[in-house]
Amino acid sequence: MYLPPQFKAEEQAHAAQLMREHPFAMLPESHTAMRSVYATGNAKEQALGRWMDQLGLA
Question: Residue 1: inside a domain, yes or no?
Fold first, then answer.
């Protein structure tokens, strides 16, 4: 399975930088929408939502 570089980053600061450089990073409303979906998803989606919270993306 392909993993984009931001999901391979070992350091949280580097992951945040990569995510913010992504073209969709300029769309905070998309982060909010994704976060609300992840909150009600399976365990992996909920973990991704918490990760977004830690990075300040949602």
Answer: no
Task: Confirm whether 35 is domain-assigned.
Answer: yes
Cα dihedral 41, 44, 48, 53 in deg (nearest 10): 70
pLDDT tens per residue across span 15-55: 777 777 766 666 667 778 888 888 898 998 888 888 888 88
Q: Could you list the residue range(s) of the whole structural domain that residue 58 is in?
A: 26-58
In a domain, 13, yes or no: no
Nearest residue to 31 via CA among 1, 56, 2: 56
Burial 33-46 (b: 16+ CB within 10 A, else e): ebbeebeeeeeeee
User: Considering the entire predicted model, what is its pTM?
Assistant: 0.51
Domain count, the chain: 1
